[in-house]
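Q: Give me the 3D complex with adenine.
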Amino acid sequence: MTKTLTAPRAKAEGSRNYDIKDISLAEAGKLKIEWAEREMPVLRLVKERFAKEKPLEGINIAACLHVTAETANLMLTLKAGGAKIHLCASNPLSTQDEVAASLVKHAGIPTYAIKGEDRKTYFSHIVQALAIQPNVTMDDGADLVSHIHTHWSAGYSKVIGSTEETTTGVIRLRAMEKDGALRFPVIAVNDALTKHFFDNRYGTGQSTLDGILRCTNLLLAGKVVVIAGYGWCGRGVATRAKGMGAHVVVTEVNPLRAIEAAMDGFEVMPMKEAAKKGDLFITLTGDLNVIDTEHFKVMKDGAIVCNSGHFNDEINLPALKSLSKKIRTVRPFVEEYSLKDGRLVHVLAEGRLINLSAAEGHPASVMDMSFANQSLGSEYLVKNARELERKVYAVPQPIDEEIARLKLKAMGIAIDTLTPEQVKYLNSWEQGT
Ligand code: ADE
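A: Here is the predicted complex, encoded as structure tokens.
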């Protein structure tokens, strides 16, 4: 249901619409946003500069991101830079309703996001976010860009470019570039080193286990935890699970990653084998049906399956349903499937991103760097769009390095610098043994 703001709530700029769960949650949301901000020193510096220089003045931004306290701080930074924003959720289960309420009430940002929204509402929110007629779009999973390209109209001709937060989104966008389908340039925020080295590895590593533990209260020590996918996210979760005493098994399709997992000390095997051994399964592959009928058929009684990849199609839930005679919710975010042969399989958060559904997503300290990349990436896009082609671009290296320097400084860590002699040595080839 879309509500029209009426005074005194009618503070939202641009369109006067929003669609959130409950505006009375706003005070709790404000506290949560402020709590996150304490751990986001790099973004805070960007915000202070943006407030002075207004690099986004006159720019309309449609953002489709997980509506969390960290995202709220990004929105406040873009607003400080002069942008007008419409925000919608990038996943039906990841919205923090109190944060959405505060964004509407305190920041005047039209927000379209309700935790637990159905598919129809999710897509209607995308349409409402795009009603701002954006100059820049900001995606986590490429749903805005995909909607614009599949529903192209003159209203979208003002888009000068987009930024993309996540691996899955970048993969979709590169496929569009390859097909010659992309209509504007995209900055792949995910590909910045200060993003995926930290957010994907340490952020997903911690927040995935946080989500699992909050909704199950499981003891990881002594459990067999099967991690599907050894990309940056899988590496992070595997390392953290091992640190908590789990016996970690990795499944992979990429031979190099499989060797790496083996040399990192994990058991590596096909899912068909792992399915018989696992107590807990976590998918982070970005691909379809990684856990399928043949795997459910051999799982142990009581096995738990969940996903921390972007989309909810890594676990074939329709297949599990057809093997089952009964499904019931036994705890928040835990569904128990009773199989026809008598075994139980538990599915967490309907196979959606466990870290953002059952917990609060990555901690603010790591989102600090991801969202500094988003803000500086948008500024770069606005300044340079005319020179950019319809391609997917990395965040320029000087921006990436500056974010790393600022983060180190905020962490109180000093590092060495090369002496002139060392610089000369590194740039020469004559000197050897
Ligand atoms: N993706 C993962 N964690 C997140 C968070 N805390 N906020 C926004 N997007 C996220």
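A quick observation: The longest helix spans residues 193-216.
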